[in-house]
Amino acid sequence: MKPRIRRRWLQGLAIATGLVLGLIGLRFGLVPRSAARFFGLDTPAAPAHVHYVVAVRDLWLALLVIALAVLREWRALALWLGLAALACLADAAIVLQATGWMRAILFHVVSGLICLGLAIACWREAALPENHAKSDGGKVV
User: Fold this and answer.
1) How does pLDDT run across 26-58, given as a tens digit for each residue?
2) CA quadruple 84, 85, 87, 92: dihedral sign
3) What value, to the nearest 5°, has the Cα angle with vertex 60 and ends 135 and 66?
């Protein structure tokens, strides 16, 4: 695959990851009881303050990953996605303890594996010589 096309795909997948996380955040903010059930958490008591915290966290993290992808900050994306993979696996463990709902556990595990794969791809992209241009006219080092 040509480098430009590869970078576009990688950038698009990272942006899509941010959009999905943003939608999850919106769902937790707008319909916390439904979101909690879907993602394998106990249904919150009204008001669902802890789920509003999840909503805000997901929204700002979504904006961050989208910004990093738009700016093509490959190493920062790799770090964000690697940490997101750990968070997804931690969420799966929490759901296992909280409700044990297999559908929600699988969602978190698959999300973690996707983030891990993207993190590795971003790290490899960052390591390529064409991504080490100096600020002196964009010459490749």
Assistant:
1) 999 999 989 988 999 877 667 778 889 999 999
2) positive
3) 45
